[in-house]
What does this fold into?
Amino acid sequence: LLARYPAAQQHSTPFAQHPVGTGPYVLESWQHDDHLTLARNPRWWHRPSSIRRIEMRIVLNDQARVEAMEDGSADLYDNVGGNDYATLRRDDPHLTFSHVPSLYVGFVQTNDTLPGLREARVRQAMIYGWDRQAVVQGLAHGDAAVASGIVPPAIPYWYDPHVKPYPYDPGRARALLDAAGWRLGSGGVREKGDRHLAFTLSIPNGDLATQNTAAEFQADMRAIGIAIDVQALDWSTFLDQNNRMRYQLQLWSWGGVPDPDQYTFLDSSQLPPAGNNTSGYRNEIVDHDLRQGLKTIDPLERRALYNEMQRELALDPPFVWGMDGFDRTVLSPRVEIDTRTILPGQYIYANIWQWGIKP
It folds into this structure.
């Protein structure tokens, strides 16, 4: 089905509008930006699912999602933001709540092919200069943790606890920029020759938490001499910028699988359209560890490779590490589900065929 399309076009083929799957549900209808309906798959290999039909509503307004759970017009709200989760726990204790570590890591992705951003000391300085703990305690209400790298604590076998997060240290950030030859110029923006450390940070439009995070990052960068302009984009434009590497900075996240393999995301051979290395990151040690990790069967040998990868990513960060979060889900009382079976990330629906709905 996909062989007829060049790799660069496979993100936008008709196949994505009519997906083929082998799970308990199939796509029945899809009205873009409004809702999609899933119907029970009569050809599924297992016994029929308990719920015949599921409607997934696209609701872009935070308050509207909260109200839908409060008034009972919605049964499940997944990927809940910290503010909404705290509000519903406070106001609606009759609801069911799930809270598990996320398989996704949040960060500010840098385009490492650009002047300034291609320098490891500049990226290090940006991490030291961003008060991520303030974001955790303030915007996330303490319901997150400062990230140390691309492997999240949600997969503890592969996460290396010896790799510590960068502390907030704006003095060290300034020293690194000075050592790299970036001196304060007029207006407090660092410069080297005719170059300035001034970048545009792209964010998806419409999410208040994202806007606030971007504003705090902008203020912290200004304090160390880096000028940041924040640009809010609709999701399709934001994603297209990333896919084509036509951005400078983006507020981004990555993950979703319980394995440390990051080959398509960080290997130097995986720049678009070959893979997802949309930061243009290049590091020979990381390349070696990623390639050997895909060939190594012994779990101890494999873990040693990915531990080395994590140490190298701390020394030569591909971008500005942000936060490790949690996957929060809120369910109505009529949803029959054993919340102990909910796993991080996209796997909340792993046993959806067992779910039930009370009358």
